[in-house]
Amino acid sequence: MKIGIDIGGSHIGIGVVNEEGDILEKKEKRIMKKDKENIKKTIEEYIIENVKEFQEKYDISDIGIAIPGKVTSDTVIKSVNLGIENYNIIKSLNEKIKLPIKIKNDAKCAAIAENEYGCLKKYNKNIFLTLGTGIGGAVIINNKLFETENVINCEFGHMVIEKNGIECTCGRNGCFEKYASMKSFKNELRQRLALDEKTRGQELFDMIKTNFKEKENYEVIEEVVDDFVTSISIGIVNLTNVFAPQSVGIGGSFVHFEEVFLERLKMKLQKENTFSGDEIKIEVASLGNDAGIIGATLI
Q: Are residues 162 and 139 in the same domain?
C-alpha cells in the first residue's frame, strides 16, 4: 500500500491507498491563516505525525505528494498560493520518514487519477482543470501526461482572460484564476453579501440554493454566479481552441457546487464556442477532492 498526500492552498489531505486506487483511511487538515506563518513547519509536522501513525497500521511501500505550483523531482520551485519557493520537501521529510517519496504538481496528480479511475477514463485526449484556491491544469493524450522538459507547463491558471484585470499573486494582471478559482468566487460572494471571511463553502452553497427557491439576495447572487461561470467558460474555450480535447474534466472544490454551476456552464459554453462549433464535453471529477491523494500514489 501507498500513502498519497494532497497539499492545497487551504488544506492537507493524507490517505492510505491500495492497489485498486481505493482510499482505506484518510485524514485532513484545514490550513488556517496562522498556519501559513510557518507553512513549511505546518506541512512537515502534519505529514510526519500522520505517516508514522499509518505506518503502525499498514505496510506502506512509498509516498506520493501532490502539491500546487512549479515542481521538479524533489523541489517545489515556486508555489504562489502556499508562499513557498525553492523548498526541497523530500529532503526535509526524509530526515524523519525513511520511505521513498515522490512529488508532482497537484493538478497533474488529480488528472492522472481521473484518467486511471474516474471521469476521463473513457476518453483518449483530455484537459483537466482543478478549481480551488487557484486553478491548476493538465493535458492527457493517449493515457500519457503532456509534459515538457521545463517544469513550467500547463499553468492554465495564469492565462490572462482580462486585459488590465485584477492583479494576481504571480505578478501579472487578469489571470484566469483571479476570476474563475473557487477561492475568487467565494471571496466575491462573501464580500457582496457582507459576510464574514470565515463563512464556509457549505454555508455559501446553502445560501445560493435558498436564493433559487426563495429569491433572497436574488440580484447579487445571480450576478456573482453568472460572472463566475462566464469566466470559467472563457478559459475553457481558450484551452479547447488550442488542444481540441475530447472532454474537459473539472475537479477541486467545484465538485461541491456542481448542482449550481454545471448546467449554467454548459449553456455558456454553447454560446462561447463559436470557433469550432463542436460541443465541449464537461466531466465533473468523479473522485472529488480525493483525486489528488489517489493520483499522488500513481506518480
A: yes
